[in-house]
Amino acid sequence: MPSGQTAGTLWSADHVAAIGPLASFAAPLIGAADLADALPELGLWDAWPVQNDDGSIHRFADGASLWMALGAPWFENPDDRHAHARIHLLLRQASGWRSLGPAMPEGFAPGSREWSGSAIMDADGGGLTLYFTAAGTRGEAQPTFGQRLFQARARLAENADAPRLTDWRDLRESVALDERLYMDPLSGGGGIGTIKAFRDPGFFRDPATGEAWLFFTGSRAGSASAFNGVIGAARGAGGPDDPWRIVPPVISADGLNNELERPHVIHHAGLYYLFWSTQSHVFDPAGPVGPTGLYGMVSDRLEGEWRPLNGTGLVIANPPEAPRQAYSWLVLPDLRVTSFVDDWGHGADHADTRRFGGTFAPFLALALDGERARLRAAP
């Protein structure tokens, strides 16, 4: 790190080593009946709602909401989906989910595929800003693992059929990589679980100051460890045309874990809760190794110091009998939690073909009390 720059609050081996029995953190086992909301034409994974500036879900008069999710055709090897990912628009109604097609028009985004982000509705409800990851570069012969943070604006058009996003414009790079602070993803190789990160922009407006933040998944520059995941950040006024200023990582798992994915913040009972997802196979195998799950920290202010929830960071784990059943948890301001069905219905040592669910997992719900977090019955 450059002189005077910090690596952020450390999520350490001591924290993970203190994780006890998983029963109190384990999500319910997912069964075949829980896949009823699948969209047959697409495999879906990382998802997020279109939110208002204060973080609440934007809703139409009938209560329906717009969501975005990464989607791709079905492949025999589910990992192939990452090379074909596009952001798809979905309508959530009382009757279920409806696909509205790709969010952005073909050829608009600058990457060879689109990875996770967040979306914020304008105050008047007439349009939105999408923050997203451009992976690779448009037209490349083979997918590469370059990652850039972009944003673009669109107009929301409502008609008798369904809402649509039109007039896509103002495409620009939100935050450029600063290699003094964050490692270039292209320098890390391309193996699953080993690639380096500069992705997953999550927008948050600080209710105390009015300042906007973008949190993202990064990799620590100058690390001596192959397991150098961090949560990075940029700060700004947060208007559609306002610039962002990149800042040092806010949380570091250097020496412990390679990927702190899809970081996002909610404000609850006067405290800030920063959550991320990670998988057991991206921990340093020298240990300790935590379960695939949702992790988080809490602070009195966004600048830190951050304190691991439950003393360890672990908030939700997959059940031991299905350790890969769900992933990519997102905590909403009302403390409901969404994720997607990954490899479901199997034990840790199964020899069957991987069963990729490719749809929304059943919603969960949290109870937060200061530095404690627990599952509660979903509403």
TrEMBL record:
Lineage: Bacteria, Pseudomonadati, Pseudomonadota, Alphaproteobacteria, Sphingomonadales
Annotated InterPro entries: Glyco_hydro_68, Glyco_hydro_beta-prop_sf
EC number(s) reported in the record: 2.4.1.10
A Pfam family assignment: Glyco_hydro_68
Source taxon at top rank: Bacteria
GO MF, any single term: levansucrase activity
Similarity comment: family membership: Belongs to the glycosyl hydrolase 68 family.
Protein name per its UniProtKB record: Levansucrase
Enzyme superclass (EC): transferase
SUPFAM superfamilies reported for this sequence: Arabinanase/levansucrase/invertase
Protein keywords: Glycosyltransferase, Transferase
